[in-house]
Amino acid sequence: MPVRLRYFLDWGGDILWAGDDEANAKYGYPADLDLLPVSHETRELINRLFCIWLSIAQGSKSKVEKEEFSKLNKEVFTRLASELQAIEIFNEMPNISSQPTAYGGG
């Protein structure tokens, strides 16, 4: 059975999380990207995704940012699934419209 990782962002910018004890032992919680064969390009996309997510989570109502987030989120997940084929990745990223804001709204 493959190792399992969970995919979602948090306030620290982490995007992959151990989904089972084996993943936790191998990669930590959150998963340390330096222990995984994730390309430089994908890491840059993750950083960009986090910047957009942070802006939205802090209250940005920009439709352009939300659309960019949705598009980039799909690309990052697809790239990670391709680069980490031996690992089962569960997409737990909530819909951007349900992301909390710093002001407690949705």
Q: Tell me the Rg in angstroms.
A: 14 Å
Q: The biggest beta sheet, please?
A: 3 strands, mixed
Percent of residues in helices comes to: 40-55%
- Beta-strand fraction estimate: 5-15%
**Structural category:** alpha+beta
Strand order of the largest sheet: 2-1-3
Helix count from the secondary structure assignment: 3
How many β-strands, per DSSP?
3
- State mean pLDDT (0 to 100 scale): 88
Structural overview:
The chain is an alpha+beta fold and about 110 residues long. Helix content is about 45%, strand content about 10%. It contains three helices and three strands, in the order E-E-H-H-H-E. Strand 1 and strand 2 form a beta hairpin. Helix 2 runs antiparallel to helix 3 (about 65-85). The relative contact order is 0.21.
Quick recap of the structure?
43% of the residues lie in helices and 12% in strands. It contains three helices and three strands, in the order E-E-H-H-H-E.
